[in-house]
Amino acid sequence: MNQSKASNGLFFTWLGLLSIAILIGLFAAFKLLTEGHHLFNANDVLIWSLPLGAYIYLALTSSGLTLLAAIPLVFGIKRYEPIAKRLIFLSIAALLGGFISIGLELGNVFHMVYIIFSPNLSSPIWWMGAIYGLELIVLIFKFQRIHAGDWTSTTSKTLGKISFLCALIAPLMIGSVFGLTESRVTYFGPVMSIYCLFMAILSGSALCLFYNLVHAQVTGNGISDEKDSLFRELTRIFTGALSAVIILTLIKFFIEGSTVIPEVLNYHKYAQAFGSVAGMNTEVILGLFLPFILISMPGLRYNQSTRIFTSALVLLGTLAMHMEILLAGQSRPVGPKAEQFPDVISYFPSIWEWIVFMLSIAVMLLLFSLGERFLKLESKPA
Amino acid sequence: MPRYAMVIDLQRCVGCSACSISCRSENNVPDGIYWSNKITETSGTFPNVRYHYIPTLCNHCENAPCVRGCPTGAMHKLENGITMHNPKKCIGCKYCEFNCPYGVIYFNWTYPHKSWKNNEKVLEGTASPKEEVAKVGGKTIPYYNPEREDTLAGIRPKGVVEKCTFCDHLVKRGKLPRCVDACPADARIFGDMNDPNSKVRQLLGKFRPFRLREQLGTDPHVYYIRDFNPANYQPSKGGF
Question: Which among A371, A376, A367 is positioned nearest to A82, based on CA atoms?
Fold first, then answer.
């Protein structure tokens, strides 16, 4: 009884902290809507900053979670069913967090109605918005069906398939937003779409592993043999995604290192905002190489603490990598803007950008917490 | 249907910035935003040094990346080739600005012409900016040009982008863009590319033009001809 009271106390303290963060975030939203985006440390050269980086990160993570959820829900692998409902819910929460971030990044969010009434089908941003919008709606309906105990009806299965397709295509669209810009060759073309898809799988599998292992520790429920075997498989998926992103990162590194295209040479000079070790970006070393080495060691691979630590490193590392790519490509003025701005733009997020980031994360965590408490996220088909 | 283009004669251009100043007045352009701008470069080392000056504006590209990328069609092409923007449809995603290879699109990060809300007097006995605004009705700015409202918001609100429109509101009345009209050296020549007798077509046939970042395939409709270079040198074959 006492333990339950203490647990309730902790839960409500946690909710209180999240509510404070959300209230501060809402104040920032009001300030942005009334005063404008000069509150951000962005400008007409460095146009997209932390809130957009946070959106990319959360939206891709959401896609990764939905792709993992498709293993039981679309491909029928039954041993993954115990985590399916939770994955769908985490995906919804992460995507909502991402939408908050991009919503507050937009100069005029109230004009969003023209996305529907005046669509431009040649715009990768339109496709990105439309597919993520559809994905969110489908995921909510899918969750509602699962929550009502309907795992196998045609409607439920169709919703699962549509959400899977959306989660597969949406990261490609995020990549094309960057890869199709004529003015910025440094975003390295079509490879960017493939990179974003693998980053989605990586951050999705990292969050899945991190969340489930931490959840088991916090609740003190322990991990059953069935789940232990499942988490071992998830660890292998996570390691595979890490390997794929490492290969793509090395390809990018070697292309940048061997080309003589002036824009790419300039880009490479400033593409190490978080510092470097032996010429390689710090976030790549700490967020990709170190976790890969740790998770590849047979003695450590399935150790719970190692897996929590490595997945946490990857979650931080992928956010840093998205920010690095986003900022480095915008660090130098284009054309006549060099008359007004310095040769290289330095950037550190303003307090308002940090608050927008905090708001997105707080909303996501609040949903995680409420979902865990009230929505029986561990249920599986009868 | 005409297809408008501009030729800028770099031999005639003296870099006086009359184009930029007249553009600001005509289009009520706020501080920090430049529809008409320039690229300046210095090459060489003293005493063998040279200064380059290239006036810039929206290139009204045939294959405009800003138009292709705009999710709501707020940035769009008119039939006469002008790249136009509709702030009412703009969601402020800034993708056009991100996507423009020429750096000629700007975002309204805050309320435009904010300095005119200032209530402080620069000198005792003078009027504050706010009082000056009050004298002209309080809604705009003292030098506001209402003609701009014909085809676009007279002053664009915060949260949307803006850029040069080739003064489409003047062009549709058969007048020249303001920067062309204001150029004291006649360095800017405006006209219809589809008319074989237009001055722009004559000049493009007579001189070898270049365009900015042509290799991107955007097909810009601002052309540059000639160059001013008074330097001379003694004939030489070089050597060691």
Answer: A376
B224 inside 8 A of chain A by CB: no
Element (H, E) at A61: helix A50-73
Residues B48-68 pLDDT 10s: 898 899 999 999 999 999 999
**Which chain A residues have a beta carbon less than 8 Å from that of B35?**
none
A to B CB pairs, distance under 8 Å:
146
E strands, chain A, are 276-277, 280-281
Q: Which helix (H) or strand (E) holds B169?
A: helix B168-171
The contacts of residue B19 (CB under 8 Å, 6+ apart) are B36, B55, B57, B179, B180, B182, B183, B188
**Once rounded to an integer, what is the mean pLDDT over residues B158-172?**
98
Average pLDDT over residues A309-314: 98
- Reported as half-sphere exposure (CB side, CA atoms, 13 A), residue B221 has a value of 26
Mean pLDDT check: name the lowest of A266-280, A295-309, B67-81, B173-187: A266-280
By percentage, how much of chain B surpasses pLDDT 90? 90
Query: In chain A, how many domains are there?
Result: 1
Q: What is the CATH number of the domain that holds A251?
A: 1.20.1630.10
Nearest to B104 among A124, A177, A335 (CB): A335
Query: In the structure, what pLDDT confidence band is assigned to residue A255 with cuts at 50, 70 and 90?
Result: confident
Q: Is residue A166 part of a domain?
A: yes
- CA A99 to CA A88: how far, in whole Å? 16
At A267, the amino acid letter reads Y
CB contact under 8 A, A120 and B216: no
Closest CA to B102 of B220, B238, B236: B220
pLDDT at A17: 97
Query: Do A335 and B94 count as a contact with CB atoms less than 8 A apart?
Result: no
CB-based contact B110 A36, cutoff 8 Å: yes
Q: Using CA atoms, how far apart are residues B207 and B177, in angstroms rounded to an integer?
A: 23
pLDDT per position as a tens digit, A267-305: 666 677 888 888 888 999 999 999 999 999 999 989 999
**What is the set of domains in chain B, with CATH numbers?**
4-225 (3.30.70.20)
| pTM for this model (two decimals) | 0.94
In this complex, which of B102, B106, B111 lies closest to A44 when CB atoms are compared? B106
ipTM confidence score: 0.93
Residues in a beta bridge with A341 = none
* Interface membership of B117 toward A (CB under 8 Å): no
From chain A, the residues in CB contact with B89 under 8 A are 111, 114, 118
Cβ-Cβ contacts under 8 Å, B93 against chain A = 105-107, 125
pLDDT per residue over A152-198, tens digit each? 999 999 999 999 999 999 999 999 999 998 778 778 677 899 999 99
Reduced to 3 states (helix: H, G, I; strand: E, B; else coil), residue A255 is: helix
C-alpha distance from residue A221 to each of A81, A216, A217, A229 (Å) = 18, 6, 7, 16
Contact B206/A at CB under 8 A: no
Query: Are the C-beta atoms of B110 and B116 separated by less than 8 Å?
Result: no
